[in-house]
Design brief:
disordered N terminus; Jelly Rolls; alpha+beta; globular; six-stranded antiparallel beta sheet
């Protein structure tokens, strides 16, 4: 890895041992942890999401933290609260979405192929997705999934919102 300020070469960060870097959630969606909260000294986490068509974070919700998403490939349908109004649009490769703390939002794969997004959030972000994956193994179900994941959302100071 090259230091951008002085051009010197530093050793690459060692991967933490013991935690699986790939998290599967809500069926066949997956997250690869690129930088864990542990590796960043609990400052942040960086993950790559692979979202299947119509999969993803499809339930409207709000978080207590700031999230950033950058679309690497494919299309993602986003719905997010802006200035008190809900807006829906399709984000494509190269688009960056910043979700402010407390903003209602959801996203789903919009095309016929999986999409990939890079996401950056707080260190707890990784723990949330691990807990979510442990709470619900199947594809999204309108009745059962919210009941199963509701306690996970509450544990992390998040809230599922009515549509």
């Amino acid at each position: 890895m090259t230091n951008a300020t002085n051009g010197t070469t530093a050793p690459a960060m060692q991967r933490s041992v013991g935690r699986e870097p790939v998290i599967r959630f809500l069926g066949n969606n997956e997250i690869t942890v690129l930088v864990s909260g542990e590796e960043s000294g609990n400052a942040f986490s960086v993950m790559e999401l692979v979202i299947q068509p119509r999969g993803g974070a499809t339930a409207l919700h709000k978080d207590r933290w700031l999230e950033v998403f950058h679309v690497l490939d494919g299309e993602v349908e986003w719905t997010m609260e802006r200035d008190g109004r809900m807006e829906t649009w399709v984000a494509r490769r190269g688009d960056t979405i910043t979700v402010p703390s407390g903003a209602k939002h959801r996203f789903a794969g919009a095309g016929n192929a999986p999409c990939r997004m890079l996401t950056i959030g707080p260190a707890q972000y990784e723990s949330f997705f691990r807990a979510l994956a442990a709470a619900w193994k199947g594809p999204y179900d309108r009745e059962q999934t919210p009941q199963a994941v509701g306690p996970v959302f509450a544990k992390f100071g998040m809230e599922l919102c009515p549509a």
